[in-house]
Amino acid sequence: MNDDARSHRPRWIDLTILAAAIAVFVTLISLGNWQMRRLEWKLTLIEAVETRAHGDAVGLPVGEIDADRHAYLRVAVEGTYRHDLTQRVKAITELGGGHWVLTPLMSPIGPVWVNRGFVPSGLRPAMWTKPEGIVAVEGLLRISEPQGTLLERNDPDAGRWVSRDVLALSLDAGLADALPFFIDADHASTATAWPRGGLTVLTFRNNHLQYAMTWYAMATLFAAGMAYVVRDRLRAEHETV
Fold first, then answer.
1. For the whole model, what pTM was predicted?
2. Judging by beta carbons within 10 Å of its beta carbon (0-12, 13-18, 19+), is residue 186 exposed, middle or buried?
3. Could you please report the per-residue DSSP string of 115-168?
4. pLDDT tens digits, residue range 13-59?
5. What kind and span of H or E run contains 38?
6. pLDDT exceeds cutoff 70 at 237
7. Those residues with Cβ within 8 angstroms of residue 162's Cβ, 6 or more apart along the chain or in another chain
């Protein structure tokens, strides 16, 4: 489009384009700000996890469970396992593909699901350890993982579990009074025994600052482009006067 055509373009078209451009600029800045808030949240999470996970073990919390206060809290509890109610949950770990072994522990304050650890695919239950009698469990309190994953859903009727959904596991096992969380148990047997506990991932990806800088850079470049177009438009109008 030549300068003469631009100079005769209706003003409302220029204003509409400018409003749309401002909206895009504001959106880019908002995305950068959101990533900065995510960065603050992630740093707080990392600090909390390091503090809770490596602190002294405490008793199981009673009452409402708050992820911000209780996730990854190191806890200790005693009870007896109900191995007959064990479920396997699909897992990918540093040891490869397989399953988490989740077994309810009948504790003095109610049943609590314990992730006893990882077993590789093909390892028969007869090869797992199955502690009997009163056992002491120490590990990290984890928040329930409802329904499934982004790609798969739990199917209790088929005995197919892809996430550690405490409510669904409890309903399927007939444990209506089970506690609303599970415990990732430390490895409590010989080094080569299965299930292999103590595999909780305690490192978290933190690319939020990089993402924020990317959005801010895009906003800066876009603003520079807007300024150039506006200046060019004003220059064209001035030359036609």
1. 0.73
2. middle
3. EEEEEETT--GGGS----SSEEEEEEEEE---SB-SS-B-BGGGTBBSS--HHH
4. 778 888 898 999 999 999 999 999 988 888 887 888 888 888 899 99
5. helix 11-53
6. no
7. 89, 90, 148, 149, 152, 153, 154
